[in-house]
Amino acid sequence: MSIRLTRRAALVSSAAAGFALPTLSHAQTGPAPAGEALAEAVDAYVKACMAAFPDQPALSVAVVKDGAPVLTRGYGVKRQGQAARAEEHTLFAIASNTKNVTSAALAMMVDEGKVKWDEPVKTYLPGFTLSDPVIGERITVRDTISHRAGFGLGAGDLLFWPNSDRSREEVLAAVPFVPIEDQFRGQYHYNNLMFVVAGAVLEAVSGMRWERFIQTRILDRVGMGETVPMTSLADPARSALPHARVGPPLRYQGEMVQIAESIAEVWNWDSAAAAGGICTTATDWAKWIGVRLAMGELPDGTRLFSEAAAKEMWRPNIIIGSSEGPTAELPGRAIASTYAMGFQVQDYRGERMITHGGGSPGGISATVLIPGRDAGFSIFSNAEESFLLRALRSGIADIVMGKTGFDWIADSVRLRDEGDAKSIAAAAEIDAKQAAGAAPSLPLEAYAGTWRDPWYGDIVIETRTTGRGRSRKSGLWLDFTHTPALKGPLEPYDGETMRTRFPDKREEDTFVTFKIENGRPVSATMKAVSPDADFSYDFHDLRLTKV
């Protein structure tokens, strides 16, 4: 677990996971605002959050109550340092909030009798298998969108994160080689790769590409004319552009900077669109929230999917975590947090909450539904201020539910500052260990060559010489051949462990540890350098052998 609340938490945490400010009294319940009063209360709270996190460029917020949007609004600027304001029609990358749209698309196929939730995937994708062939035989459509297949957290994400040159078909061809490290249906492990498989099932049974189905069968019918199913279709002029902190000393530290001229520049998931491709606006997503709260019914009385399918998508399939429940210090703590299909389901302050997060380079987001109050809201961001997102999710949920007594803003600022201190200390420790590290046992050129992983493919290490005369210097260069951003110097760290220095500071560096046999390196493993590294840098799943 990262020592910071990074994209990991944006994806797998609930809208208000029970982190409370211990010095404050137990939350109180008052009358929940509605209509204009609700809009005014949320608007004032969002502005207070942005004041407490002044580096945040833009936000977009939508609130739906009793079947109608009461607030759709943008805040801040689309590009740091420029005047263009974000508003309710500004596009944001929503990343894994896409997952509940993919689940809805499959539900439509269930309604039409073309898919069964508990039918094996191989029924629809003949020849489908996994690295564990027994699981490959048994895994069902429901399993692919419930994070319970047995893969480790984020396994296989390097096939498309950072931006890869692979096609969707090439990603699917690599699936059988991605290692499975846990029991089938035994534990919850967030996994994007199986949603790519779910998208392939949709394509097989519908006869349409995933993006075409989402556009014509969902977006067009719901009237979401501002939304695009893939980031490559997001017009930069209409978009809130990505921002982040890229160091020093580590990623998520340093000054806030714009990291791309378009969303797709750092988040092109066309090959994994079913897991996180959609870009949308507050105006459009409010419509989607309305459909979900109406259990699939559209404003004209027709249905996108049946009420039975809607209920099934909210039925828990795997436990994420559990606790003894709320306390005076933690009144929002869930007794049980679960994952259904494309949504997380938990109890919050005695009520059912349906939620999901999304995280991409330069943006995080959240969708929260409170069915018992016929209410829901979304938050879209164009920066990686995860503690700001935490304050917004928890605070807006409390406003909608009429809860008072916790200062989520102050608590989130406190946790951010504590996390920053730990990260800075960790960076110093990493550098100190390198300074004191032992030299490699072999000449650097001995480590050069082509290193192959069964699912990722080739990683090339070569010797490079730069400069002339006294400035002449030789060293190693590492190249992830399918990932343009992951190319850079590889330098000694400690013994048989080396570390990268990728010139693209938007990316995370990795340790490479070589195994020596008979005086030569024969295999290697990897691990992210930073303890804050996002789980999608799944370097640790690579098992490299020298070709």
Question: Topology, please?
Answer:
Blueprint: H1 7-12, E1 28-29, H2 35-52, E2 58-65, E3 68-76, E4 92-93, H3 99-111, H4 133-138, H5 141-144, H6 168-174, H7 193-206, H8 210-222, E5 243-245, E6 256-258, H9 263-266, H10 273-276, E7 279-280, H11 282-293, H12 307-313, E8 318-322, E9 336-339, E10 344-348, E11 351-360, E12 363-370, E13 375-381, H13 386-401, E14 403-404, H14 408-435, E15 449-453, E16 457-466, E17 473-480, E18 487-494, E19 497-500, E20 510-517, E21 520-528, E22 544-546
Antiparallel strand pairs: 1-14, 2-3, 2-13, 4-7, 5-6, 8-9, 9-10, 10-11, 11-12, 12-13, 15-16, 15-22, 16-17, 17-18, 18-19, 19-20, 20-21, 21-22
Question: What do these coordinates show?
Answer:
An eight-stranded antiparallel β-sheet has the order 3-2-13-12-11-10-9-8, sandwiched between helices. Strands 15-16-17-18-19-20-21-22 form an eight-stranded antiparallel β-barrel. Helices cover 28% and strands 23% of the residues. The protein has 547 residues and is an alpha+beta fold. The chain is globular and about 75 Å long.
Strand content: 15-25%
State the secondary-structure class: alpha+beta
Total helices: the number is 14
Q: Termini distance?
A: 33 Å
With strands numbered from the N-terminus, the spatial order across the biggest sheet is 3-2-13-12-11-10-9-8
- Residue windows where pLDDT falls under 50 for at least 5 positions: 1-5, 7-26
Give a count of the beta strands, DSSP E runs of length 2 or more: 22
Mean pLDDT figure: 93
Biggest sheet overview: 8 strands, antiparallel
* Percent helix: 25-40%
**Rg, Å, rounded:** 23 Å
Which outline best applies? globular
